[in-house]
Design a protein that fits this description.
The chain is mainly alpha-helical. Helices cover about 55% and strands about 5% of the residues. The chain has two domains: about 5-90, DNA polymerase, domain 1 (Orthogonal Bundle), CATH 1.10.150; about 115-295, hpI Integrase, Chain A, CATH 1.10.443. The relative contact order is 0.10.
Length: about 300
C-alpha cells in the first residue's frame, strides 16, 4: 500500500481509537509526511513496508544536517514510532523499523516556576476595578488551584462546579474527564464573579454554560488568557517567561516541594483517566482531596 493510504488509516486510528485532539493528529500527520516525502525521493522509492532501520537513521541524519533541533527531531521520531507501531499492530509490516532507534539526547531545560510569593502577588494584584477584574481573579485562582491546562480553563463550564463536594469536573485531552479538588479561595472568587459580574455580560446564544466569557459574551480564548497573565506579570516586574502553562507547572511544583504524594499530583494533572461515574469506586476521593488541601498554599 502507498503512503497516502497508510497515513489516512493511521489518522483514522488516532481519531477513533486513541481519541486524540485535532491538533495532535495534525502534528502526527506532518511528522509522517516528512518521512514519506523523504522516502519518495530515494532511488528506488520506498513504500512504508520497505522502510527499515537504516532508512530511519538516514532520514534522521538528513533532518539533523538541515538544522532541526534535537527537540524537533525527538518529536518527529515519536510520531514515526507511533505510525510504524500502528502498521505492526495491523500486520502491515512484520518488523518495526523504529523499535531500536533512540531519540536524540535533549538538554534538560527546566521551565520557569513562580514562587508562592510571586503567585500570591499576581493573584492579589489583579485590578478589581475593571469590568473584567473579578473574572480575571476567579480565572487565575481556578487555574492555579486546580492545575488546569489553558484549554481546560477556556472550556470550563458552570455546570462542572460541585460546590458542596468541593470538586470541579474537568474535560481533558481526548475528552477524558477527571474530578479535581478546588479550594475555598477559588470557589469564593468564582461565586463573586458569577453573581456580581458575569450576570452583566451580554451572553451569546450557546455560550451560557461557559464559565469564563469575554466582554462580548463568548467563551474566552486561549490568547486572551495568555495576555491577561502577561499583563499581570509585567505590572509586577517579574522577569520570567510566564505563560498559562506556568500556572499548571507551579501548581505541581509547589505541591511536590511541600511533600504531596506524586500519584495524587499526577491524578490532578490528568495523567490518569477518571470519569464522573467511576469516582466513587476507583478513586479514594477523600484521601485525594485531603492530600491536595493539606499541601496547596492557597488552601491553607
Amino acid at each position: 500500500m502507498n503512503w497516502n493510504i497508510q497515513i489516512k488509516s493511521f489518522l483514522t486510528y488516532l481519531r477513533l481509537e486513541k481519541s486524540l485532539a485535532k491538533n495532535s493528529i495534525e502534528a502526527y500527520e506532518r511528522d509522517v509526511r516528512k518521512l514519506a516525502s523523504f522516502c519518495e525521493g530515494l532511488n528506488p522509492i520506498q513504500l512504508p513496508k520497505q522502510v527499515d532501520a537504516n532508512t530511519i537513521r538516514l532520514f534522521i541524519k538528513t533532518i539533523t544536517e538541515i538544522g532541526l533541533s534535537a527537540t524537533s527531531q525527538a518529536r518527529i521520531l515519536s510520531g514515526l514510532k507511533a505510525f510504524f507501531n500502528f502498521l505492526f499492530l495491523e500486520k502491515e509490516i512484520i518488523v518495526d523499523p523504529t523499535e531500536f532507534i533512540d531519540s536524540p539526547r535533549l538538554g534538560r531545560k527546566l521551565p520557569d516556576v513562580l514562587s508562592i510569593e510571586e503567585m500570591n502577588k499576581i493573584l492579589e494584584g489583579i485590578d478589581l476595578s475593571r469590568k473584567e477584574g473579578h473574572r480575571n481573579r476567579a480565572m487565575l485562582e481556578v487555574m492555579y488551584s486546580c492545575g488546569l491546562r489553558v484549554s481546560e480553563l477556556t472550556d470550563f463550564r458552570i455546570s462542572c462546579i460541585y460546590y458542596d463536594e468541593g470538586f470541579i469536573r474537568v474535560i481533558g485531552k481526548g475528552n477524558k474527564e477527571r474530578l479535581v479538588p478546588i479550594g475555598d479561595e477559588a470557589l469564593k472568587w468564582m461565586s463573586i464573579y458569577l453573581k456580581q459580574d458575569r450576570v452583566h455580560f451580554p451572553i451569546q446564544h450557546g455560550q451560557e454554560d461557559f464559565a469564563f466569557l469575554n466582554l462580548r459574551g463568548k467563551k474566552i480564548s486561549r490568547m486572551s488568557v495568555f495576555n491577561i497573565i502577561k499583563d499581570a506579570v509585567e505590572r509586577l516586574g517579574i522577569k520570567k517567561q510566564i505563560s498559562p502553562h506556568t500556572f499548571r507547572h507551579s501548581f505541581a511544583t509547589h505541591l511536590v516541594e511541600a511533600g504531596a504524594d506524586l500519584r495524587a499530583v499526577q491524578e490532578m494533572l490528568g495523567h490518569a483517566s477518571i470519569t464522573t461515574t467511576e469516582i466513587y469506586t476507583h478513586l479514594d476521593r477523600l484521601r485525594l482531596k485531603e492530600e491536595i488541601l493539606s499541601f496547596h498554599p492557597r488552601y491553607k
